[in-house]
Every structure is written in structure tokens, then in C-alpha cells.
Amino acid sequence: MIVLIIMTTTNDDILSSLEGVGLHENEAQVYLAALELGPSSIWDIAIKSAIKRPTCYVLMNNLMFKGYASSTFDGKRHIYTVSSPKQLLSAFNRRQEKLAKTLNQLEGLASKSSFKPDVRLYEGKAGVVEVYNLTLDLGKEEEILIYGNVAVETSYQEFIADYLKARVKKKIKVRAILPDTLDNRKIVERDDAELRETRFLPIEKFKQKTEVNIFGKSIAYIAHSEKEPFATVIENSTLADEERSRFNLLWEIPEK
């Protein structure tokens, strides 16, 4: 018997990929609708994307501003065409290359206002995953400090294996302070393999609901317990050093 396995890509996957090249969610929906329709009026694109026509006009103008769409006039109405996926990727790569050339100058500008914190909010599981991926930007032999309620093992099972593999490959170490529970004790069994050192505080005294990650110049506060998880990242070297000092004080309290 031959079993045929068909791999399908959902619209959500496609929209997520489009967001990955710099399109906002609604822009991605309009782009996808216009791509499927071919050269079309804004009326047809609005119906296809299920986005109101006035909003669709604004989003299509955004796409044209970014170089991802164009417009012609047929004597009666404007007809819109979006770039092919290959053209979209090429345009995105050119923008990245242009940014890379000015990165040193931008870093210099940022250092002039180093005390002013950069605060970013990441929403949903995808946002939390993005925050974890930020920690992979650390250099070799650098470390991530973690304390609080760690739920990544249970809430992000489809992601955690690849993340751990990438972190270990980059030799990024972790020190973690966790509530003393049976589940958390199981994590310690993999400490050596996962470049981690873990210590515990009594759960009756350590009831923190969020997970805190300190890495480089950043602090990430991750709320796993909410119905819709989210994370707040503060990037500021002074605040990160303060939080790192608090962590080290806690580190000396518990026994491993």
C-alpha cells in the first residue's frame, strides 16, 4: 500500500511569511488578495481580502510606497498590480543591505542616548517566540540570566527543541533561578547538555508569575499565564546591569 502525504501551506503560514518581510498583517492580506487576482480594481481587492474599501486604498498606497505594488489608469478606474513574490523578496533584501551599510552610524546615534530605554511590546505566542530568538543574538560564551515562572517547556514545545539546539550551537550559557517544583527539577537533568546551571528557591516564597530574561543590554518580562501571552523588552544597559545585580544577589541565596 502506498501512502501519499501531501504537505499544505495555510493562509496563516503565508501571511506570517509576508509579515516576515516587513508587511503589516492587513498589508499582507491585501498583497495576497491582489496577487491571486492579478491586475484588479480596489473594489475587487477589497472583496477578496475582506477589508473595507477605504482601508484597502490606504493599505495599497502603503504597498506602493514600499515598492511592492503599482497602479495604472484604464480610463475609468485605477488598476493595481503587486510585485511577484521573488520581486518582493529582492526588494526586502535590498532594504536590508542598505540598512546594513548604515548600521555603524545608527549604533553611534543610539549610544549617544544610551540611558533612554527602548521599550517594545510583543504580543501572542509568535511575539514571545520572537523575544526568545532575540537572545540568540548574543555572542559566544555570553550568558542569559533567567528567573521566575518558566513555562516555555510546556507552552512552546514545537519551538523549544530548535531554540535549545541553536543556543547550544552558539555556546550561549544560561543561569536560571526557578521555583522548586517537580517539573522544574526535571529540567536540571539536562543542564549540562543544554549549557545551563539551575538553582531553586522555595515555591512558597518565590511566587513570581512572570519569567524574566536578562541578556546583553536587554531585559525581557514574559507573561505566560495570560490568556494571550505577551512580552515586554526593555533595552538599556544601565537597567540591564541593575537587574543583573539583583539576579546575582538571588543566585547566592538558594542551594542547587
UniProtKB/TrEMBL annotation:
Residues 18-85 form the Transcription regulator TrmB N-terminal domain. PANTHER family: HTH-TYPE TRANSCRIPTIONAL REGULATOR TRMBL2. This is Transcriptional regulator TrmB. The lineage of its organism: Bacteria, Candidatus Berkelbacteria.
